[in-house]
Amino acid sequence: MLFNSIEFICFFLIIASLYFFIPNRFRNGYLLVASYYFYGCWNVNYLILLIITTVSSYICGIYIGKTDHLVLKRRFITITCIINLGLLLIFKYFNFLISPFNDFFQIFGQRQAIPELNLLLPVGISFYTFQAIGYVIDVYKGKSKPVKDFTVFALYVSFFPQLVAGPIERSYHLIPQFLKDFKLDYGKITSGLYLMLWGFFQKLVIADRLAIYVNAVHEDIIRFNWLQLIVASYFFSIQIYCDFAGYSNIAIGSARILGVDLMNNFNRPYFAISIKDFWRRWHISLSTWFRDYLYIPLGGNRVSLSKTYRNIMVVFLLCGLWHGAGWSFIIWGGLHGVLLCINNLWSNINNSKNETDTVFIRIIKVMATFHMVTFAWIFFRAKGLNEAFLFIKRICSMTMEESGLTTGIPGFSQYELYLSLFLIMVLFFTELFQYQKTFDSFVLLQKIYLRWSIAYYLLFSILVFGVFNLTTFIYFQF
Q1: pLDDT tens sequence across 209-252
Q2: Euclidean distance between CA atoms 235 and 23, whole angstroms
Q3: CA distances for 4 relative to 205, 250, 342, 440, angstroms
Q4: Distance CA 95, CA 134 (A)
Q5: Of 243, 338, 393, 449, which residue is least crowded by CB atoms under 10 Å?
Q6: 6 and 466 in contact (C-beta within 8 Å)?
Q7: CB burial class (10 A; 0-12, 13-18, 19+) of residue 117?
Q8: For the whole model, what pTM was predicted?
Q9: Which candidate in 69, 323, 336, 371 is catalytic?
């Protein structure tokens, strides 16, 4: 059930309408059933995996809370990781991990010594697996108390607004909200509606329009000239941001209407002045997860400089692997790791200089960071390393086989190009003027006539300029 479908709109309207009238003691159970139905619409068989993750993490959390024996606690964490990461490995990484062995055996004339598994990747498995593991670690560290109410814990793992693509919530933030009595809050409903409208605008009007251009170029790279490839690179940077931020805004907005506050997942990432700053703003729930549960336990930056850089590279290589079972994702993560190491090295060299950057210098830093991120996205978007290197080679060739930026791209006329550029400018100025505020808080600060104007503008744009081809969200594949 895609967020950008009529099916989801009807589903959410029904769920939210009934939710307001259900007694508090039944609300969590009602949301749990709704969440399982939502997930079952993708593939009902994979509900079993979600339940296995839920039950195993719930039991381990209970036993960790019962014992003071450190060795036993660690054993239960190990059990949780083996079960949950084991499922993730089988369904997402098994074929990738055995491919080098099969390639090796082929040298000696043996075909596929280890058979591949023909399994459909369960949607959202990387997200709810990390959320469940985070809970067990939080209980171990004493940040969260073990949840005795199974319904509450199951809802924490499977809450439908953020089940499929996050944000990856922390147990100590989300679970207490399910334990409180629900109170109707019109301010939250208004805020949630604005966020949902903005999310639908980002996805349907901007991301899915740019996807037409990007997909056409990547389907046959040889056909297009270097300038079209560069435009496709820029468009993909905006597409993936609007696609994922759009999903996050719809998720946060729909949860807020139901009285639940989810963490903010984006903070104007393309206004970052460095790669380090970028990762403070991009997919915040994942970057902070890796920071809290991997980088800091490895020693973070409290160890020697060489070990700090080792920790950064380990985190970002695994971050790349988390996104997909392929070398192009690993290279993408490795690029960000190397850039962050360079960023830290430069910061250490210039540690004594505390001058405030001028506006011009900040603009240069923003532009440089954006282009570094855009270059790395080439590996992220490519279907493999060969395609990524071909893409870069074609850009460097500077050949102009055909003129016109829209030549050879079906469904993307010159008008669509100008409209896309205009919409990107709308996105840019919206984020520029909202500064450090979230979109909903920025809108709610305006006078009432301006708030209504923004709402009508977004709704009109979605209905008139929206691309309603039910394109799935990019991060659903992770």
Answers
A1: 999 999 999 998 998 889 999 999 999 999 999 999 999 999 99
A2: 47
A3: 11, 9, 40, 20
A4: 26
A5: 449
A6: no
A7: exposed
A8: 0.93
A9: 323
